[in-house]
């Protein structure tokens, strides 16, 4: 492990290019695993620069693959880089990088969805939540099918201050399908405004820092790629449990073209839906005829605060799921139909 506070700068020695590494270790991209590699080191340098100042930082890179971003991180004068890669074919190439950067690169053959980064870095890095962010960064270009569920999981971790956020307000720089990057950062009223916009923005300062055209990747994906930077906020804009916020936001956006009262109504059992939805909107001071995309984070804050009070008053409310009620009603109707048929009606 490198001592922090050193002034010398580290550069990797001359190495085979990423393209040569891919040939050498026969690392053809597995299409079914959505492997698209970044070979242009100027571009990987740019991504890493955008992540912020990494001098003496402890960096967690998710899905390093053939190691393009990994090289740029190692050249950014970090204290330590820990990479977690699922596909064993990439380990020998990464090992070559580790040999070229003695004591700096730790390689884990594992799955980012289960890896416990909270146990991997020194305790001394931990900062109180209210302080400046710790010198711990997450960086990664993962398959889109992994990055979207992972960011939801990490946002929940931000809310609970656990997982990668036991160190404090750990910053993340991650790639997404461009459309998802736009949703994550969409402002109130914009076309891309969605569930992800609210979930990310109530917990973090979120910036779409770079768009990379699909042709920069090998093989070229169907879509362009957006790089998004997240810094957890000292004070979340909504101070309610993650699952409660998720429920309110999910229900609201399920009818994204309708007025917001339509989706919000699904938070309540059919028998008193109209009355409870009216009460929620009135107490939260939200215009029922706004569309979901027109609601700001502070509208959601009021809605979540009032819904929380309603849940405290009615202990069954939070567990209510309109899909379950629909299913039960359908089977009741079916039973009635069956009875009619049996009675020859
Ligand atoms: N970061 C490299 C780059 O930019 O060239 C590789 C990008 S490729 C889109 C995604 C990488 O993530 C692959 O190497 C793949 O094997 C790895 N990966 C996919 N799912 C993973 C998981 N659950 N845990 C760890 N690595 C994963």
TrEMBL record:
- SUPFAM superfamilies annotated for this entry? S-adenosyl-L-methionine-dependent methyltransferases
Identify the GO cellular component terms for this protein: mitochondrial matrix; mitochondrial nucleoid
EC number annotated for this UniProt entry: 2.1.1.-
What subcellular locations does the record give?
Mitochondrion
**Which InterPro entries does the UniProt record give?**
KsgA/Erm (IPR001737), rRNA_Ade_diMease-like_C (IPR023165), rRNA_Ade_Mease_Trfase_CS (IPR020596), rRNA_Ade_methylase_Trfase_N (IPR020598), rRNA_adenine_dimethylase (IPR011530), SAM-dependent_MTases_sf (IPR029063)
What are the UniProt keywords, alphabetically? Acetylation, DNA-binding, Methyltransferase, Mitochondrion, RNA-binding, rRNA processing, S-adenosyl-L-methionine, Transcription, Transcription regulation, Transferase, Transit peptide
Regions crossing the membrane? none
Which sites bind S-adenosyl-L-methionine? 36, 38, 63, 85, 111, 141
Q: Which CDD domains match?
A: AdoMet_MTases
Q: Which GO terms describe its biological process?
A: rRNA methylation; transcription initiation at mitochondrial promoter
What are the GO MF terms of this UniProt record? DNA binding; mitochondrial transcription factor activity; RNA binding; rRNA (adenine-N6,N6-)-dimethyltransferase activity; S-adenosyl-L-methionine binding
Q: Does the keyword rRNA processing apply?
A: yes
Similarity comment text for this entry: Belongs to the class I-like SAM-binding methyltransferase superfamily. rRNA adenine N(6)-methyltransferase family. KsgA subfamily.
What is the name of this protein? rRNA adenine N(6)-methyltransferase
Source organism of this protein record: Canis lupus familiaris
């Amino acid at each position: 492990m490198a001592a922090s506070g050193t002034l010398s700068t580290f550069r990797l020695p001359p190495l085979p290019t990423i393209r040569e590494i891919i040939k050498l270790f026969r690392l053809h991209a597995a299409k079914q695993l959505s492997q698209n590699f970044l070979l242009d080191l100027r571009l990987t340098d740019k991504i890493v620069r955008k992540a912020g100042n990494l001098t003496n930082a402890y960096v967690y890179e998710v899905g390093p693959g053939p190691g393009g971003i990994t090289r740029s991180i190692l050249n950014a004068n970090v204290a330590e880089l820990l990479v977690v890669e699922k596909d064993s074919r990439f380990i020998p190439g990464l090992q070559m990088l580790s040999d070229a950067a003695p004591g700096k690169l730790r390689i884990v053959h594992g799955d980012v969805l289960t890896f416990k980064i909270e146990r991997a870095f020194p305790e001394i890095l931990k900062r109180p939540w209210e302080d400046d962010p710790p010198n711990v960064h997450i960086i990664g270009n993962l398959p889109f099918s992994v990055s979207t569920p992972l960011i939801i999981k990490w946002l929940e971790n931000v809310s609970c201050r656990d997982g990668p956020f036991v160190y404090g307000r750990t910053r993340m720089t991650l790639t997404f399908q461009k459309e998802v990057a736009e949703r994550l950062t969409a402002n109130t009223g914009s076309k891309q405004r969605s569930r992800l916009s609210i979930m990310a923005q109530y917990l973090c300062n979120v910036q779409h820092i770079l768009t990379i055209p699909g042709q920069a990747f090998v093989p070229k994906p169907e879509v362009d790629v957006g790089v998004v930077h997240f810094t957890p906020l000292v004070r979340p804009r909504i101070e309610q449990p993650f699952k409660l916020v998720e429920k309110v936001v999910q229900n609201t956006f399920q009818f994204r073209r309708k007025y917001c009262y339509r989706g919000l109504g699904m938070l309540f059992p059919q028998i008193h839906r109209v009355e409870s939805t009216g009460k929620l909107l009135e107490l939260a001071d939200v215009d029922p005829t706004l569309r979901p995309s027109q609601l700001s984070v502070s509208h959601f804050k009021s809605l979540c605060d009032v819904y929380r009070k309603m849940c405290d008053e009615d202990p069954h409310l939070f567990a209510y799921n309109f899909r379950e009620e629909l299913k039960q009603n359908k089977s009741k109707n079916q039973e009635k139909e069956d009875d009619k048929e049996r009675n020859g009606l």
